[in-house]
Amino acid sequence: MTLPDGVEYHVFGDSGDDDEGDGIEGDGKGDDGPGSLATRGEPVYGEPTDGEYRRWDPHRSKLGAMLALGMDTGLAGAETALYLGAAAGTTVSHVADFAGPTYAVEFAARPMSDLLDATESRPNLVPLLKDARQPATYAHVVEPVDVLVQDVATRGQARVARLNSQFLREDGRLLLAIKSRSEDVTRAPDDVFDDALDDLRGEYEVLETERLSPYHEDHLGVVARPTADGTL
Ligand SMILES: C[S@@+](CC[C@H](N)C(=O)[O-])C[C@H]1O[C@@H](n2cnc3c(N)ncnc32)[C@H](O)[C@@H]1O
């Protein structure tokens, strides 16, 4: 697996709580060396740091889990990114550490102040207090992007990804985490994932899927690319 430029494995030492035993160090599919996934930037969520490195905790980040599990995200670094479901900035701050312009959409006002704090040292991180189900409300701000990252814990996650495909370049990637319980707590996760993948098709070609356990239970990581029609 290739990590994007700006993301690497770094040994934080004892206090850094490196990922031994989590399936990353030594035997993880995504093992690019010893230590823990890290980017360089100001800390955001109390994560361990070592100089300019900050640990990217895959237990707290679906995209971090996708990278730690060795999924082929297609990320190279310096991409233009649209992130849906930014919350307080845990994951999108790591994205902004290695990406170019990074638009962060979040509709809840409460986590916004933490997200704004994360933007202070990241001039490339653009917070948008918007509903990801209404892309027309931010279409005038967001330029075409190389990667659409989505982690919205809401019903209709595939629909949200379809609605936002308009921003994705033809050769871009959708990196989606689907949470089965947000769709229907009563159904088997595999059935929920099958329906969501069916819903994506037409707008996206699914390239890879992987359950995000042991980091996130009942979540599916999806890498997809837009189909030719209707993209920028
Ligand atoms: C699981 S949390 C995201 C965690 C975040 N991605 C991270 O790793 O740091 C899901 C977030 O999606 C947001 N959300 C849910 N539905 C949304 C929508 N329609 N538009 C924008 N944000 C939404 C929620 O408010 C919540 O903050």
UniProtKB/TrEMBL annotation:
Which GO terms fall under biological process for this protein?
Answer: box C/D sno(s)RNA 3'-end processing; tRNA processing
Q: Where does S-adenosyl-L-methionine bind?
A: 90-91, 106-107, 131-132, 151-154
One matching Pfam family: Fibrillarin
Q: Where is the composition biased (Acidic residues)?
A: 15-25
Enzyme class, UniProt record, top EC level: transferase
Top-level taxon of origin = Archaea
Instruction: Output the PANTHER family linked to this UniProt entry.
Output: FIBRILLARIN, RRNA 2-O-METHYLTRANSFERASE FIBRILLARIN
Q: Which UniProt keywords apply?
A: Methyltransferase, RNA-binding, rRNA processing, Transferase, tRNA processing
Q: What is its EC number?
A: 2.1.1.-
Tell me which SUPFAM superfamilies the record gives: S-adenosyl-L-methionine-dependent methyltransferases (SSF53335)
InterPro entries in the record, alphabetically? Fibrillarin, Fibrillarin_CS, SAM-dependent_MTases_sf
**NCBIfam families, per this entry?**
PRK04266.1-2, PRK04266.1-4
Entry GO MF terms? histone H2AQ104 methyltransferase activity; RNA binding; rRNA methyltransferase activity
Instruction: Write the protein's name.
Output: Fibrillarin-like rRNA/tRNA 2'-O-methyltransferase
**Which family does the record assign?**
Belongs to the methyltransferase superfamily. Fibrillarin family.
Function comment? Involved in pre-rRNA and tRNA processing. Utilizes the methyl donor S-adenosyl-L-methionine to catalyze the site-specific 2'-hydroxyl methylation of ribose moieties in rRNA and tRNA. Site specificity is provided by a guide RNA that base pairs with the substrate. Methylation occurs at a characteristic distance from the sequence involved in base pairing with the guide RNA.
Region ranges (Disordered): 1-56
Subunit and partners:
Interacts with nop5. Component of box C/D small ribonucleoprotein (sRNP) particles that contain rpl7ae, FlpA and nop5, plus a guide RNA.
